[in-house]
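User: Please predict the structure of the protein below. I'd like the answer in structure-token form so I can feed it into my own downstream comparison script.

Assistant: Understood. Taking the following sequence of 250 residues as input:
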Amino acid sequence: MMMYLTKVSLWDVVKKQFRFKLKSYRGVFTSLMLLQIIGLLFSLGGEGGSGGGSESFSYDMNYYSGNFLLAFMMIWAFISAIVVTTQAYRYDDYSFVANRLSSHLSNILFLGWASIIGGVTFVLASQSLKLVFLFQQDRKFIESEPMTVLQMSEGLAATILYLFLFTALGYLVGMLVQKSKIFTIILPALLFGSLFLNVFLANESTYVIDIGQVFMRETSFLLFMLKVLLTSALAYGISALISNSLEVRK
């Protein structure tokens, strides 16, 4: 009698876990739609404006953009990654013949796919925002900067990269909190402390660095992409190292 041993490859396990998470974590995409609706409602109020006139006429000028919507999307990406690291979600992987590496890889694939869906729907929602103003009867003049196909493609890619960066940061925060609950106090303290330093001491200290500007002020798309991918890889790598001790203790 001959016996055959089937060796399951790592990639096969990752694909099965990834497909499982696409079906099981549908709430992530439901929350995405809800936050996009909320972001659109906030965007309808505008981001400021000006006005003027004379004896014969007057005018009001308002500025609109998808910044509110993008902010909500970043919050969604950050929180979704934290949720994936919770104990209940991690224990779902034990239904597979898997290890920590396959679990992390499938989580990264899922969060990467979620970032793509978030980026595409953000672009569509931004365009729908323009359509809302086009069909409003009281809008006499609407000025919108035309965009080339290349600019739209870079904008979509940049949005996806921003969301992926926030999933990586959220994943790291989630792993830190799972390791020790004290991080639920330390991390908010660091966040608000950094905000305090940047707001109140930026003009007095040359050592205060706004980390967010490292990405936002980058004019080269290739350098921006490199920064995001390296930072994300570092965050996911540290998260994987943290989970090595976390799984032993749990």
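That's the full token string. The CA atoms of residues 55 and 163 lie 49 Å apart.
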